[in-house]
Amino acid sequence: MLTGLNHLTLAVTDLDRSLGFYRDLLKLRVEATWDAGAYLSLPGLWLCLSLDPKRHPEPAADYTHYAFSLGAADFPLFVQQLRAANVQEWRDNRSEGASFYFLDPDGHKLEAHVGDLASRLAACRQKPYAGMGFFNEP
């Protein structure tokens, strides 16, 4: 039986550049590095950067992305710091909770989001998506 998400591995084209992005800008903790990769962490997250020459830095056209949690009080400064670093935005927020959608140096789609599943479901109960059904009562 699955117990949760174990880790994310992102293919990168320039390990030093990506390590700097996740360590210095996003403030993930570096746990280990080696010639072709690095392990970083946040509470509840294990992130692996893996050097991969097959990685193309163009972002995918679909909506697949990875979202990080952020407190409401920290959100404005976080967004300001990313914009000051000229991090590319890829979408405007269209849902509940403050969100900032941005790309990493290899075009991986990321999001910083204020909120959680409970707050999203509460907002959806007030204004459901087309065809939405709920399976558990609040």
Automatic annotation (TrEMBL):
Alphabetized GO MF terms: glutathione transferase activity
Transferase keyword on record: yes
InterPro entries from the UniProt entry: Glyas_Bleomycin-R_OHBP_Dase (IPR029068), Glyas_Fos-R_dOase_dom (IPR004360), VOC_core (IPR037523)
VOC domain boundaries: 4-115
Keyword Aminoacyl-tRNA synthetase: no
Superkingdom: Bacteria
This protein's UniProt keywords: Transferase
Record-linked PROSITE patterns: VOC (PS51819)
The EC number(s) this enzyme carries: 2.5.1.18
A UniProt-annotated Pfam family: Glyoxalase
Protein name: Fosfomycin resistance glutathione transferase
Organism taxonomic ancestry: Bacteria, Pseudomonadati, Pseudomonadota, Gammaproteobacteria, Pseudomonadales
